[in-house]
Amino acid sequence: MLSLHPCMHCSASFSRPSQLLQHQRSEHAHQQSEQISVRGNKPRHQQRGLLYACEDCGLRFKDAPSRNRHQTLMHYSSEGREEEGRG
Fold it and tell me: Region Disordered: what ranges (predicted)?
């Protein structure tokens, strides 16, 4: 079965994490900045409980394991790890 990677902002799904990341960056970059806009006394991302930010792209998640899974799938490919290890 093909594993799909759904977009959290729309109904799009992708077969590869890299495709999802490219989609999010091109289609939803403005929504990342909107998530941290102030609403009341707390930023919107805190009201939603999205307290864990990806250090690479700024996307926010409700818990550390979700953020870590995102970082592993989207930013640290096996090729990237191999490149880092050679040095």
Answer: 18-47, 65-87
User: What is the extent of the structural domain holding 78?
Assistant: 42-87
Domain annotation covers residue 21: no
Total domains, the chain: 1
pTM for the model stands at 0.38
Nearest to 75 by CA among 50, 56, 53, 49: 56
Whether 15 is covered by a domain: the verdict is no
Residue 34 lies in a domain: no
Tens-binned pLDDT, residue by residue, of the chain (87 aa): 465 888 877 888 888 888 888 888 888 776 655 444 334 445 555 556 678 888 888 888 888 888 888 888 888 765 444 334 444
Residue 76 domain flag: yes
Residues 74 and 20: beta-carbon distance below 8 Å:
yes
